[in-house]
Amino acid sequence: MVGKKESLEEKRKRAGSILRRLRKLYPDATCALHHKSALQLLVATILSAQSTDDTVNKVTPVLFEKYPTAADIAAAPVEAIEAIVKPTGFFHQKTRSIQAACRLIAEKHGGQVPATMEQLIELPGVARKTANVVLGTWYGRNDGICVDTHVGRLAHRLGLTWTSRDEKDAVKIEQDLMQLIPRAHWTFFSHAMIWHGRRICAARKPNCAGCGVNKLCPSAFTFETPAAKRAKPRPAAGRPGRKAKD
Known about the structure:
Helix content is 52%, strand content 0%. The protein is built from 12 helices and no strands.
């Protein structure tokens, strides 16, 4: 029964069922960031923080048409990069991260984005989430699970992490998920969870009735809609400790 305290093996079994359902629901799940190279994917992923993929996908073609290589981006005037990436938000910090990462890629890696976790997280602005996107999507390596805001939220709702509901440590959540999902499926699982979070299991108003994994989710149908809250009867008016008149 979903919701009871599970052993590790029981949780793994349920996670496997969730994975199979996600395979049926989103067989083509993949990264929504447009890219033609590892560099483009890396930069797009950095820009996607606190932004939408649609916004990033409008910005990156302009950026890479003008500055196609890591060396080009590193050498570009700061103001020029900022003007292009400004719509993605936090453009000062993102520009610093992108240029610093591209500088290291150009100087240390011959202009090629490295293909190992250790080398990727050495790049400015790159943590495990971004590294997992590049490794899994471009290089086809299942070195981890990408835990963004959607995956973190769904991991809690689906009961696939031992962290508390208010725990935001992506690395801890990733370690929990990696215990439950077979390694061969880590990249797909990341993309499918993101798709499910965007399409069905929204932060404020999840569509539990339309969810293909609701029978496996301990949080299903536990979210009140604004209409349901408004429909709740209010306490009768009256003085404290005195019954209200009919």
